[in-house]
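We now fix the convention by which a protein and its fold are recorded. The integers have meaning only within a learned vocabulary of local backbone shapes. A complete example follows; check for yourself that the lines match position by position.
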Amino acid sequence: MTFEDLGLGPELLKALAEVGYTCPTPIQAQAIPVVLMGRDVLGCAQTGTGKTASFTLPMIEILAAGRAKARMPRSLILAPTRELAAQAAENFDNYGKYHRLTKALIIGGESMSDQSALLDRGVDVLIATPGRLLDMFERGRILLNDVKVLVIDEADRMLDMGFIPDVERIVGLLPKIRQTLFFSATLGPEIRRLADAFLMNPKEITVSPGTSTAATVEQHLAVVEEIDKRETLRHLIRTENVKNAFIFCNRKRDVDILYRSLKKHDFDVCQLHGDMAQSARGDTLDSFKKGEIRLMVCSDVAARGIDVSAVSHVFNFDVPIHAEDYVHRIGRTGRAGMAGRAFTIAVPDDGKAVAAIEKLIGNTIPRIAVEGVPALELDMTARKGRGGRGAAKPTGRDRGRPARGESPAPAPAPASAVLREPQPASKAAIEVPQPRPAPAAPPREEAPIRDIRPAAAESRSRYRDERGRGRDDRGRRRGRIDELGIGEMLHADDVVGFGDHPPDFILIPVPLPSKLSARDLADEDEDEVEAVAEE
């Protein structure tokens, strides 16, 4: 089968011939006719099989007729990484050179004003990462009401990177009537759930199992001590006929450390990870694609979306944390039917991770021995303990302090106490006099309740003498208390401080407690004592 049999126009066929493509890959041969029919597609194929061209070519054919409006793109391609978005934009440049289609690449790390200027002129194809696209939408720089075709590329990578909430929000902003193309390297249960939410009666195209590796990639595994990993890598690079190679690490800090180590040993090497500026990442990737640099130490940011022709080797300096990442890493080599070699350097504690990879791909990775480095066996029972994800966390006893629920261990005796010989002590020095027990306190008797009405009258008289004014000068208060028993209501004829018209709530009667003790009334201030009147 050729591209002419897929229903593509003469302009596309001419561009493909100039690029050097004559026969479509299996995913392209099955997906392109379905996309041209206008149906939704759920595509699954292993990395390096041409998934990008399977939706790029029919999109160019569909968008050839029509014109874009300002700030309203006609199609949208969502990619998880900047490199994958740039790869899709490069495909549009190569295949659409004979079509008058405009595109815009909206990714982070680039000038937002330049990207806004492209959108203002109108674009037919918008290629974006979810974060920057939402930022542009919230600023009012873009409208998504005219999107006819939506492409979600590398959906499983979107899920791993936590972009699914952003993708769901973006899909909610698009028209309900559209064509959606959903491509992924794996089709797990979560991916199928998303596909059911985004697609309408899709055509599922599965060319090969998403967890299989290319048959053209020769795989090897070396198990060494942690301290011998760098020496093993250097020996493999020197002995293998390496034209260009990716060297993958699990952590960004390890990328920088390994890069400086290889640079110190005079290797032609560069580094690529997510903490680098976008301009530096672009320059490094361009130099590697042009062959100016032979080795690239990178994180999983380069595991997808980087299409470098004729990559001869892939080295996994660290065993991938997720088994699926192994498939994507070694998929950087052996592309387009070419041969490739992949080497993984493991330590004994990586036994469970290697077992998960072999179970996923359905094959056992052949073991090799490196000259000058002792070969070891994998430990299938140990947890990964290199300080990363999956490492065993130290318990309270390992950290030198008791764990929860344990009694503290006795503190070790100081050296001076251990070396000092025990001295004999006299009996008098040893005997400790016991304190005499304190005599029991006599039971406390309750104070009798006494009538405090005479005390209240005396206090009122003293108050008159000190203030120099009588009862009539400060208002009249009357009250009754029934022998400290059931109290009646206190009320006031005149209220001090409110003039002739006090508020109604001041005049509400307040009930006294049914029992008042001498202690309670003694604690009242003089004003309260005076307010208790005698009969």
Q: What stands out?
A: Residues 144 and 174 are 6 Å apart (CA to CA).
